[in-house]
Amino acid sequence: MNADTLVDTNIIVYAFDRDEPEKRKKALAAVLALQNEGSATISNQILAEVFSVLSGKKTVPLEEAETIIQLFAASPAWKKVAYTERTVVRAAAIKKLYGAPFWDALIAATIEEQNISLLLTENTKHFARIPFVQAKSPFV
Prior knowledge:
Layout: E1 5-7, H1 9-16, H2 21-37, E2 40-43, H3 44-55, H4 62-74, E3 79-81, H5 85-98, H6 102-114, E4 118-120, H7 124-128, E5 135-136
Parallel strand pairs: 1-2, 1-4, 2-3, 4-5
Helix pairs in contact: 1-2, 1-3, 3-4, 5-6
């Protein structure tokens, strides 16, 4: 396995969420640390989810949400990974095998396919069922 860490939607959202100052501080520190050590990874799914969540928040203007995803997409400090139709089929099997919600199963399938070492997420519970996903929260 490599040292890449996939950063889940909730961590990136918290890094910009003015409604949760304590979580914002911890999420931002975790994101910056991964970025500085060169292991920060984002998937196309997570990038889309970040925009969807941030653009729906009253505290984040639409233009700011758009700028945030543009910065992640363009940043050479972040490795970008994408899923394919094969990943979606594997996600369906992961959902069936481990009872994970589909969007979490798609993240798990992406992790498996891309040989990613760690998932940084607040939602460790759903991923704990999937044996090949090592999930860690910056909030504990």
